[in-house]
Write a structure and sequence with these properties.
Transferase(Phosphotransferase), domain 1, 12 strands, transmembrane helix, 390 residues, transferase, Phosphorylase Kinase, domain 1, alpha+beta, membrane
Amino acid sequence: MAMMRLRREDPRVVGSFRLHRRLGAGGMGVVYLGSDRRGQRVALKVIRPDLAEDQEFRSRFAREVSAARRIRGGCTARLVAADLEADRPWFATQYVPGPSLHDKVAEDGTLPAAEVASIGAALSEGLVAVHEAGVVHRDLKPSNILLSPKGPRIIDFGIAWATGASTLTHVGTAVGSPGFLAPEQVRGAAVTPATDVFALGATLAYAATADSPFGHGSSEVMLYRVVHEEPQLYGVPDALAPLVQACLAKDPEERPSTLQLSMRLKEIAAREAQGLSEGRPPVQRERIEQDRPTSRYTERTERTERTGRTERRTAGTPAPRPRPSRTGGTRPQPPRNTSRTNGRQGTRPGVRTTSVGRRPANPRLLRQRIIVFFVVTLIVALGIAAAQQL
């Protein structure tokens, strides 16, 4: 996470915490890096002076603290201390080292499918804990997700609300971030856990494409697209696209639950980490991998000679089935009792190998030479006989 020096107007001490750096600033206030007397580092959020006297903002700040207290598990930064009655209310949470998902993508580019799925699975589990506490985040987005060494953490519950509450707020308060808001938030309908699922789908699309699935534009344009247009998922890996599409359904009832999302993303993450595609069984992929060309002729032929017969004659092992070729259709497996290598491996078809990797004369070539020898000998004999008769 980027840090900045303290400014002249920034406090140096808040409560029992000494402040060291600025971590960021938002509509409600400034977040600082601080530490207590034992050296424990915290992220300390202080309301801006001009808002500290506004009861609406104090209430919103109190909601954030209340939400942080109710949520259990490691999905969020643990609340350490708070003072809601101070001239400038503040609260401190455990400091989470690591960049935000937004900064990670901005600096390093899009993430691979396996990493996107892994982050999504952890966030889904985190949202299960958030929703079990009766809280809806309402502003889940890449900048509110920190990638710590122990896994992603959800932060900033400044506009969190109880499940079922309306998203409408008084003038001057934010309701979320365009491009990651759910359609029901735009319409002012009740928020539910499905609201956060929509935002998570948009966040995963961003991690995979470095862009919002609803593009760019003014707030009005973005909100219109969220409600009336389909998301653009070009660039989202095929393994993730259907699930992200389901998360971004306009109707909250059609979106998967956070538990379903977590389980599905774990499966995708495991499969993608192994390099296996959706439609190809693991065994078939292993066979195709073994069939790829290699210049290590001796190693391959020795392995074929030693293991070919043993593997195929193991008791209870079914006969090998035809496997798909790169051009479609099928091609038969090699005969069980052969030790010949595939002609595409850079060797001549029909060459036999020994257990020590040496290549004796080619039997076919030897037969051809014998035939040529006999033919030439016969022609010479006939020529001699014809000369003697003259």
